[in-house]
Amino acid sequence: MREARPWTRRCGGCSTSRWRRSIGSSPRLAWARAHGDPGTPFDYWRLADDAWAVIDHLGLDRIAIAGHFSGGWTAMRMALQQPSRVRGLVIVGSRADPYDSYDRIGYEAVIMDGWIQGDNPLEHVAVPIASSTIRPDPEPRRYWLDNG
User: Fold this and answer.
1) Mean pLDDT of 122-142
2) Which residue, 9, 52, 56, 12, is CA-closest to 35?
3) Angle at 131 between CA 125 and CA 135, to 5 degrees
4) Angle formed by the axes of helices 123-133 and 138-147, nearest 10°
5) In terms of Cα–Cα distance, which of 32, 19, 48, 15 is closest to 130?
6) 90 or 119: which carries more pLDDT confidence?
7) Which of 18, 87, 111, 131 is most buried, judged by most C-beta within 10 A?
8) Cα 43 to Cα 51, 73, 109, 145, distances in angstroms
9) By percentage, how much of the chain surpasses pLDDT 90?
């Protein structure tokens, strides 16, 4: 049997539990900064540095990197930092270009005005988020909607 090649997966916001089935067979696992206990400073370059530190500690040379949503932003930074060490890069649900002013205004209206500073109910937002970010299993989705 051929030995598996090393790779790293960078999870996106709120999605770490989605990956439990596949990471259960992984021999080594390190959660990213601010996933679980956000008591440490956070930025994507720092997450990339952290990931390379773990990879170096494990004595790995070239790896494939997979990143989902915000994990894709970390994965892209990892590839920029050490391109010669990256065998492959898989990016899912991320974008490399900066948001334009139209996108930024839209996100600000939803997140800042609607969620953080406003008193708008989240139900109209929770259902689309639940259906797109939570496994298609109805039980976890229902739990998130009921207890979110």
Assistant:
1) 57
2) 12
3) 140
4) 150
5) 15
6) 90
7) 18
8) 13, 10, 23, 29
9) 15
Mean pLDDT of 112-131: 62
> When comparing pLDDT for 1 and 95, which is higher?
95
- Domains of the chain, residue spans: 41-96, 98-147
The residue length of the chain stands at: 148
Q: What is d(CA 130, CA 148) in angstroms, rounded to the nearest whole number?
A: 10
User: Which tokens sit at 29?
Assistant: 């696992």
Q: Is 92 helix (H, G, I), strand (E, B) or coil?
A: strand
Residues 51, 9: Cα–Cα separation, whole Å: 10
Does the pLDDT of residue 79 top 90, yes or no?
Answer: yes
Task: Write the CA distances from 100 to 13, 93, 97, 114, integer angstroms.
Answer: 21, 17, 9, 20
**94: exposed, middle or buried (Cβ count in 10 Å: 0-12, 13-18, 19+):** middle
